[in-house]
Amino acid sequence: MDQRRYSVIVIGGGHAGAEAAWAAANLLGGTGLQTGVIALVTIDPAKIGVMSCNPAIGGLAKGQLVREIDALGGLMGLAADATGIQFKVLNSSRGAAVRGPRAQCDKHAYAEAVRRMVGARPEIDIITGTVERLLVEDARILGVRLGDGTVLAAPAVVLTTGTFMRGLMHTGESKTPGGRHGEAAATGISAALTELGFELGRLKTGTPPRLARGSLRWDDLDPALGDDPPTPFSDLSLGRSALRADGSKCRLGEPTYAFPALPQVDCRQTATTAAVHDLIRANLHRAPMYSGQIESVGPRYCPSIEDKVVRFAERGSHTVFLEPESLRDDWVYCNGISTSLPADVQDAIVHALPGCERAVIHRYGYAVEYDMVRPHQIHATGMTKRVDGLFLAGQINGTSGYEEAAAQGLVAGVNAARYALGQPPWTLGRHEAYIGVLMDDLVTRTPTEPYRMFTSRAEHRLSLRADNAADRLTPIAETLGLLAGTELGRLRSRRFTRRRGQMGALHGEVDAARVGGVPMEKALRQPGFDVPAFQRALGGNPARYDETVWFSVHADRAYAAYVVRQHAEVRRSAELERRRIPARVDYARFAALRAETRQALSRFRPETFGQAGRLEGVTPADLTLLSVLLSRPGAVA
Amino acid sequence: MRLGDIIVAVASPPGWAARAVIRLSGPGAWAMLSGVLDTAVTQRGCRAARLRFGPSGLPALLLAQAARRSYTGEESAELVLPGSPLLLDRVLRMLAGLPGARLAAPGEFTARAYLAGRMTLEQAEGVAALIAAQGEDERASAADLLGGEAGKRYRDWIEEAATLLALVEAGIDFSDQEDVTGVSTSDLARRVERLLDDLASFAGSRRAREAEAASLPRVILAGAPNAGKSTLANALLGRSRAVVSDQPGTTRDALEEVLDLTGVIPGGSAVLLTDTPGIDDGGGAIHAAAQHAARAALAGADLVVYCDPLGRFAPLPVAAQAELRVRTKADRVAPPESTGLPVCALDGWNLPELRRQIACLATSHRARGLAALLPRHREAMDRAAAHLDGARLLALDDAGAEVIAGELRAALDALGELAGRIDPDRVLGRVFASFCIGK
After folding, report:
1. Does residue B214 register a pLDDT over 70?
2. Residue to test with chain A: of B7, B130, B403, B434, most A Cβ within 10 A
3. pTM, two decimal places
4. What is the ipTM of this complex?
């Protein structure tokens, strides 16, 4: 039988899988392990990096995630910058901490960029196949067996199944097995995971119809414009970029592309009408969510149009954004009317939208149900507690969104590579990154809907800003060895060194300066003292520092008073986060704990006292008791 | 449990007493105390000191223990202070509010002693049970409190704080949604101010004092109608309060009075004495409400003083935690085979002995739980008020929503310590319930 050995196997080429393979390649490449150390297994290599739903990257809180992925040497920000056709910073009138960069991308160009970037890495072998078995012995992963009998061996496997595990698509009464339109579902893996003892759950998500732009009264509709000039995700896209528009790397000395690489487009907006709402109400019995055909839970933050009409019956109209999906075709994404109603009802709904009277529907909206592994079964590294060396990332852990998937892919990819190298696990704290908040929420909470990031989930949101992602995380990427192995990584390091120097110098100027008789740092805390005022007050040529540096120093100082308080709290809790709880504790023997506490602890098996304290049903008094119980002789089997 | 913190708690029993003890333990406890005493604490030992508290300071006896020799194995100290509950509470909150300090969690001193290896294996066996029991006492007290008027107020505050936070968060996380209109800063400031007023009025209110009284052990007088309970209560209290008559069923409602037993035995405390209507199984429906109150009082009692002039003591309808049998009207001839402590309220026969026995028996687990719980609640309310005021000022200053939200979140977390935490997911739930979110 054919058998090949790898350091890391990544299963799935979506946003989690691509980022996992890329991060593992960055890390292993930096150690001198060069070619063919990572296998990226996918059902169809042409679908790597495909945007299944809205071809947009970033947004509120999600934009912060992309900036963090980028600061850690990831690929999502670069691919989005190279292929964006409309950029917009959300909340641009609010404070720096809650601004979220967002881009609509050319969906074909984006997927191509990801394919090219991943495909250009000598560390990564792309392998076509479906995984039939996870090879596990003594609770350790040994590799996978593919449908054609090929065995791939590796000490670490990253599983990113997206919506493909027992995927089932619904449009009205019709049900089609599959993970995405026109693509087959993965059926073997659910059974393999169940056999290994994993507890699975089932979730649901949906997508709206896609329209033909030429069939719309495009020019009669209100335009929705992007920012001019646009702001990129990656610091590498500022000035000269290392990436060409097609996503391939430039060699040193080669002329580079100027951001934005692609022509920018306008979107349009229309709105639902009373007639649309009546139509939906009249056909509710044919909607899978209402007929009982779908029982799994969908997200509250992304309701279908039938949900909106039922739950907010008093509203006569909902805005619908019409967003071009690509420069190469005429598909338009109908943002706001995600639905799984039957095709004939979708036709009627779309035709009742002003401007869409003669719309041709390229693809009908559908809902998809899929299996997930309940995330209390993973560590904050992405590795499962049940099988050493097996990592899960993306929708399989019950999240939704490209950015959430990519963030987990990065964490799992780094940790899979470290595991293969025999290095200790790596995690980010809640105070360090949204990625840290995401992983911690996954391992301490019981999700009731697909998990999406919001800024309000991050208690340290004032310090987790999009603009300072590099300051927070690029030094960590350097320590991990994620930037040493590639030209792109080294360029990132150089750019960051320059930024660090400028940040230090400007902070120094602030410390020494006074404005109107008060210290400059005090003035910077006043609401209304904006960046231009800051530049004027400090004087000199503003061009001595990059615009991004002015922005970040201004934000650092504006939030300084609040952030100092948060840091004090972080220091106080650090001990709890550090104190580890042994992996194999028989909580059932701790009769002194309340039943509720015992249950929560045995289900989640927290790794630290910090995690334990965040579980529902665990009080500070329980932690006191737990520390006593764990220190008793013979407490740990 | 954070081992680096300095923990503070009252170590003496709840209620009024001549002296009370506050205990501190943790690295840096001496240095911290030095900052609030008129003397620097640099060595172990016992000495008189003055606590910088109030206009003229407070006399205190200081016992300092070095880490090597202390119970917890950490730098420790005890402050012996005048035993007024109100004063103790204030001193406790002042100390717990110092940087690096906080109120101790249930059983935390013992846990630290154990973790420092200060106990033999035999002693250690009981440690977990002890900590669990203290935690249970507090939980039971909290449940008691939440079931009552205070609990309702707590939940109202939490509801309002969560609603305000949801409004502010909606304007941050969902500003790209057509349906979302954030709250104006002036509206926000007004609503926060109203919530602050409510918190402040509660702090000085009758309800708060009732909660205070509730931290005392509860002693119930029980017995058949006309068993002489009210007369006995008046005799114990040394004054006339209950309406006394020789008609059975004169006492219709449960009457509560604080009975001071501090001087009766060493370490004795005050108790809450409740005189109930007689329990009368054969009684008619007209007494139903009074009867219900009597049974509820019995169930919640730490000690039942069961009065029966005949000394027969038929089993009570509700099992009591502790029972003291008293043959009332003992000036009458003792019936044959009667039992119980004979007491005559009219001439005072055996009254001192009855006081002594009540003082001995009326130790209350729930009362201790509540005594530990209430300072934490008050501290949490103080913290919530401080953050709400911060939010109000920021709103008036037209500061950024994300900064205002930070203060509201902190206030909501503090209030959550009273009656259940509202996590970010539940705040988001409120947003989704009130706005149509989702493009």
Report:
1. no
2. B403
3. 0.85
4. 0.88
